[in-house]
Specification:
The complex is a heterodimer. Chain A is an alpha/beta fold. Helix content of chain A is 34%, strand content 24%. In chain A, the strands form four sheets. Chain A has a six-stranded mixed beta sheet, sandwiched between helices. A six-stranded mixed beta sheet of chain A has the order 16-17-18-13-19-20, sandwiched between helices. A four-stranded antiparallel beta sheet of chain A has the order 2-1-4-5, with helices on one face. The longest helix of chain A has 16 residues. Chain B is mainly alpha-helical. The relative contact order of chain B is 0.21. Classes of the chains: A alpha/beta, B mainly alpha.
């Protein structure tokens, strides 16, 4: 084996008393591609952020080239020869390729004049672009490049800073298959030059395709790892999920009906979802599982009329929607809890009451004047807020931004409950909220279905889906790849269905 | 097919909008007045637009970082008031750089607060500066008209190689700004900060320093604009520089600089400034009726 370049030794990290990383240790060698896999929230990002100097470990040490490495900021990491390539790229579309590569430190004319040495950066950029197989003049604006080409420009930028370790975090989510293959070719070329790479991805097929060794994280623990040949895909999957589901979910004593509440038929939008059909019944919780980028949230947005679709039919109850817009969907009794609570779900600077009242204002307008019936509205807001158990009663004074994540989510749920929805789409309803608040959200969901509401429950957390749902739809690459009934729930099998298309790509 | 062609045409028109508007304005006024399209009138237009153009070049730096400076007209007035009241006896080669430095310092105050008070939009900070500085200038001048001495007035009438002094000043500021924005690391960093300040920070750019610097440059250019203007008119009443922020920002935006940062440049700004002056000049030339109603 080649020389060791980086060693993590017993790294631990807690946020607000919750341990997110527990004694993680592994080593990286020169000319090695190391795959880091795990479910969302398993500690991959925290590991990256510690290496990048964004967070500091509470315990443990990192050794770089045999010397202790304790970065306190992105600058330290860059100077130590670590380069990070994130899912969202760090490029300036309004600048040229060469300017993007050298923005952190332009070479100057005659060494000290404050003028950019265009000749030199052009020359050097051409060399770097050659190394990553991008054939554009260095003065091309980055805005003209495709996502894949931009990814490669980021790598060229890393090389320009003499990076010896390159960390790629989900780099292929916005790339085409061909661009992905090209990225892998470049990664292999860099490996041959002795550069070490850490590759984070949900797409196990890609990880198996390109990595030499694989380490698996689960709940902040390193649960396994080894050379690629010793880590077949079923081993990886069972390492990633293998967790017993404890009593985290409130019991439900109602059964779903067979009355359709939402019928979806052949919904297609090219590049997003393909031929999606399912029926959601009154009093049912239908889960939607899938990996990041599988098209779950995109589907939800289409169903609620936020994004367009090319073909297909949506029916609520027994009426087919002729016009699919948020207004129309709401009129027919649909509600939608977005995954982006802060950006889309709430007005952070407004009070609980204002947020809760917003989608219902029209219902509280007096018929004669159109003025809002304040006292009736406030009574109802207070009632619904009590029902979702927001931990304050100052609904008219408390700004939403001052609430905890869990209470914010309850405000979002409350504002839709005020409309008494027949179909409630929940997109990642428990993301970023603590265990106690999660339990309360689950209780509200159970209450709702007991009253006959139909719930579409999108989540990235497998045990949550298994604990809450009557059936689980599995999506992969914009298609439904399986429907699992409650009696046959099995997280390994669901995860396998979610990766169906990715596995097919390897074969 | 025709849809894409049409869209492409629309894009070309949109990208060259300032130039096209300029040509359209020229054609309209040239057909309405035979005195309009003469070299003398054109020199006149550029001379009259030069103080707006210089200030607009300064504000272009600020707009490129997605900021704004409403205090330019007030900075202009303060600089000229100090020049007339306290520096009148000094030779021009001393007094002008001093006024320029005062502008730079006032810009630095803007920049300081923009960087320090992150939660406060530059709009508010520079609006406050506008009122403070106008108030200061009115207090200094006792709201009376101030006059500049002979050497400055004669400077306004000076030409070199047949080109008025104001145009030389304008050309020098433009050339320097163009080089700074295109060919220096600082200039490119201004664009990067305007596009995405978070990414710029991650790329190791000292974002607060860049922001501070653009407000200094804007203040400096505002004072220079005041000098060019006072040399032409010789006296400054209490309305000197009043509401100048409007034509100055309009010139930059007409020239294609985005209010949201990252896009634009000083060439467009110069066109914008001249375009505004051309319309004004053309309306005078064609005896447009101010009170006409449709």
């Amino acid at each position: 084996m080649a020389a060791e370049i980086l060693r993590l030794d017993g790294l631990s990290k807690s946020f607000f008393g919750v341990e997110v990383l527990h004694a993680v240790s592994f080593a990286l060698h020169r000319g090695e591609i190391l795959g880091l896999v795990g479910e969302n929230g398993s500690g991959k990002s925290t590991t990256m952020n510690i290496l990048g100097g964004i967070h500091q470990a509470d315990a443990g040490s990192i050794t770089l080239d045999g010397r202790p490495y304790r970065p306190t900021g992105p600058r330290d990491a860059q100077e130590a020869g670590l380069a990070f390539i994130h899912q969202e790229l760090n490029l300036f579309e309004n600048l040229s390729i060469e300017e993007n590569i050298f923005i952190s430190g332009f070479p100057r004319r005659l060494g000290r004049l404050p003028l950019i040495d265009r000749g030199r950066i052009g020359q050097r950029t051409r060399e770097l672009l050659d190394m990553v197989d991008v054939r554009y003049p260095p003065a091309t604006p980055v805005g003209k490049l495709s996502q894949g080409e931009r990814q490669l420009v980021e790598i060229a930028k890393a090389l320009s800073q003499d990076a010896r370790i390159i960390l790629l975090d989900e780099p292929t989510t916005s790339l085409t298959r061909r661009e992905t293959e090209k990225l892998f070719t470049i990664m292999e070329r860099l490996r041959a030059q002795g550069i070490a790479l850490i590759y984070i991805s949900h797409i196990l097929g890609d990880v198996l395709r390109v990595c030499d060794t694989i380490q698996v994280l689960r709940d902040g623990h390193l649960v396994g790892g080894g050379p690629r040949d010793e880590m077949p895909i079923d081993t990886l999957i069972s390492l990633m999920v293998g967790r017993k589901i404890e009593n985290l979910f409130p019991p439900r004593d109602t059964e779903p009906t067979t009355v359709p509440a939402l019928e979806v038929e052949g919904i297609t939008q090219s590049g997003v979802v393909r031929d999606v059909s399912f029926t959601l019944h009154e009093g049912e919780v239908l889960g939607v599982a899938g990996l990041m980028g599988a098209g779950r949230s995109e589907l939800a947005r289409i169903l609620f009329g936020l994004d367009p679709f090319e073909a297909g039919r949506i029916a609520v109850g027994d009426t087919t929607l002729t016009e699919v817009s948020p207004e129309a969907c709401m009129r027919h009794g649909m509600a939608f809890l977005t995954e982006d609570r802060r950006g889309e779900g709430l007005m952070m600077e407004a009070t609980i009451a204002d947020n809760t009242a917003l989608p219902s204002l029209r219902a509280y307008a007096r018929s004669l004047t159109g003025w809002i019936a304040r006292s009736r509205l406030e009574d109802d807001v207070a009632e619904v807020s009590r029902r979702v158990q927001i931990n304050t009663t100052d609904y008219r004074g408390m700004l939403v931004k001052n609430l905890s994540g869990g209470n914010q989510q309850k405000v979002v749920i409350g504002k839709w409950l005020l409309r008494q929805p027949k179909v409630f789409i929940l997109d990642e309803p428990t993301r970023g909220i603590d265990v106690g608040a999660k339990f309360e959200v689950y209780k509200i969901v159970n209450q709702l279905v007991a009253e006959g509401t139909a719930v579409l429950f999108i989540s990235s957390e497998m045990e949550e889906l298994i604990g809450m749902c009557d059936r689980i739809l599995v999506m992969s690459h914009g298609e439904i790849t399986g429907i699992h009934e409650r009696h046959e729930f099995d997280s390994e099998r669901i995860l396998e269905t979610a990766m169906l298309k990715n596995l097919a790509d390897v074969a | 097919m025709s849809g894409t062609a049409g869209r492409r045409l629309a894009l070309v028109v949109l990208q060259n909008a300032p130039l096209i508007a300029f040509v359209v304005v020229l054609v309209i006024f040239a057909s309405l007045s035979d005195r309009f399209l003469t070299l003398g009138n054109f020199t006149n237009i550029v001379t009259q637009s030069s103080h707006i153009a210089i200030m607009a070049i300064g504000i272009t730096f600020v707009l490129l970082t997605a900021g704004i400076d409403l205090s330019v007209g007030a900075v202009m007035y303060v600089g000229v008031a100090i020049l007339a009241l306290y520096l009148g006896d000094l030779p021009v080669v001393v007094s002008f750089p001093l006024v320029a430095l005062i502008g730079l310092a006032l810009g630095a105050v803007n920049g300081f607060f923009v960087v320090q008070m992150r939660g406060l939009h530059p709009f508010i900070i520079t609006l406050a500066m506008l009122f403070i500085l106008r108030g200061a200038a009115l207090w200094m001048t006792d709201t009376r008209m101030v006059f500049v001495a002979e050497p400055i007035m004669s400077l306004g009438r000076t030409s070199y190689l047949g080109v008025p002094w104001a145009i030389w000043m304008f050309a020098a500021v433009f050339a320097l700004a163009w080089i700074v924005l295109r060919e220096t690391p600082f200039g490119r960093q201004v664009y990067a900060v305007g596009q995405d300040p978070v990414a710029a920070g991650k790329a190791g750019i000292n974002v607060p320093l860049v922001l501070f610097a653009v407000y200094c440059i804007c203040g400096l250019c505002a004072a220079l604009g005041g000098l060019v203007s006072i040399a032409q008119v010789a006296a400054a009443s209490s309305t000197f520089g009043f509401q100048k922020e409007f034509p100055v920002i309009a010139a930059a935006v007409l020239g294609g600089t985005s209010l949201f940062g990252g896009r634009g440049g000083v060439i467009g700004t110069v066109f914008g400034a001249i375009l505004i002056q051309t319309v004004e000049n053309g309306l005078v030339m064609t005896n447009a009726n101010l009170h006409h109603r449709w």
